[in-house]
Amino acid sequence: MSTDSWEHWLQCALGELTERFVTQAHPVPAGLLEALEADPRRGAQQLARRIRARQERNRSEGQRLRHLLRFESELWAQGMTHVAGVDEAGMAPLAGPVVAAAAVLPQGFRLKGLDDSKKVLDARKREELAVAIKQGAVAWAVGRAEVEEIDRLNIYHAGLLAMRRAVEGLGLTPDYVLVDARRIPECPAPQRGIIKGDSLSMSIAAASILAKTTRDALMAELDATYPGYGLAEHKGYPTARHVQALREKGVLPIHRRSFGPVREALGLVAPESSPPVQAELFPAEPSAKKDIL
Question: Which of 19, 136, 213, 286 has the fewest CB atoms within 10 Å, i.e. the most exposed one?
Fold first, then answer.
């Protein structure tokens, strides 16, 4: 009897079937599911329901991933092979650089679980996704803007600078660039800003994961250099512990001096009442609402 036949597998223990077709998610031989549903054993019928549920989750995930590729698919259909997604991480923290990433995915790319990094809450899962993205991408790169640039330019323009550096670091010129909710000045390719793009575009979601994991790893390194501030835990964000450490231990070289809690810790006037003068890196661009979804 063939090991691919449902009759063969029906003779196996239910635990073995559960391990193979639920835990390991192997393809289910034709006829096995129906046979389990018709089996009078309660355990067999429960197993059938679990397999059906897994198949439904897989179908839903496949549909979600196809939907995530709709912007890329439109561009690929127009002959634009290298579509780069760009996103950043670290706009709100009080410490550390802002990090951006760019990712060019191959046509038809699929990666189960890939989503906006803010929706992937498990750090280990984000790391696994980052490894898979780097292995599967046509090209990827990370760019950053340092604390001094953030204080000089302001965080918005520093974020744009990091994005531009990420695109320039790809090693190829993209045919088109998809950006999360903004436009990159001096971008070397046509671009489109997509509001909530990290939830709507697979390329932007991939860049989001790369930017987040890169910055988190950097903050863990800085935590070893500057112990006692909890940088590995809060990643520089203005948590109660971080603000308390600022007040008790003082301001570090990696703290953004144009941010309110840091200025307060330095004894300066809060930015809300007397904002620091910050240079403009890029000239203002004319409104381009048609490019923003």
Answer: 286
